[in-house]
Amino acid sequence: MQSINDNNARMSNLFKRLWSERNPRPCRRMSEANESNNCADLTSRTKRKPKINYVLLKESNLRKELEKDGISTQGDKAQMIRRHQEWITLWNANVDSSKAKSIESLRQELREWERIQSRASPKNAVSESWGVDNRQEYEELVGKARAGNKRKRG
């Protein structure tokens, strides 16, 4: 009888080990997902993040939100808001996705997005520089148009 109980216990332990390898337990905290490879990707087991009313949120509380998610807290409030909005978008898209990405890959996507945003020049700066560079050509075209209108009238 003892050997049957030993066999049952060994089989039970084997089953538990195989089950935990194929079905990793969900992480309870973001830090747990970062530190341990044994728990499943947090985003695949969590709910969507709600959108935040940033007008009512103090800068210190916004920094805490960013720190909680492991995101950079650099920059002014407007930059942090844009960064957090993009993080919420990435997070929720990942939760909805059938192929969830790791948290670190989401953070990498956010860093890449921010790098691209910092390189992009504002539209006003581009149009102003175009106006300066092409001012003479523009004035010639305006002069020709006005001369053409005078001929038609006169």
Short description:
The chain is mainly α and 154 residues long. It has helices at 2-22, 30-35, 59-68, 77-96, 103-119, 123-133, 135-153. It comes from Neolecta irregularis (strain DAH-3).
What does this structure look like?
This is Postreplication repair E3 ubiquitin-protein ligase rad18. It holds the Pfam family SAP. One of its GO terms (biological process) is DNA damage tolerance. InterPro entries: Rad18, SAP_dom. Helix 3 runs parallel beside helix 4 and helix 4 crosses helix 5. This protein folds into three domains: 40 residues, no CATH class; 74 residues, no CATH class; 31 residues. The protein has seven helices and no strands. It has 154 residues and is an all-alpha fold.
Average pLDDT for all residues? 77
Structural class: mainly alpha
Basic shape = elongated
Order of helices and strands: HHHHHHH
Poorly predicted segments:
28-41
Determine the N-to-C terminus distance: 119 Å
Number of domains: 3
Approximate strand percentage: under 5%
InterPro entries: Rad18, SAP_dom
GO cellular component, one term: Rad6-Rad18 complex
Domain SAP: 54-88
GO molecular function, one term: ubiquitin protein ligase activity
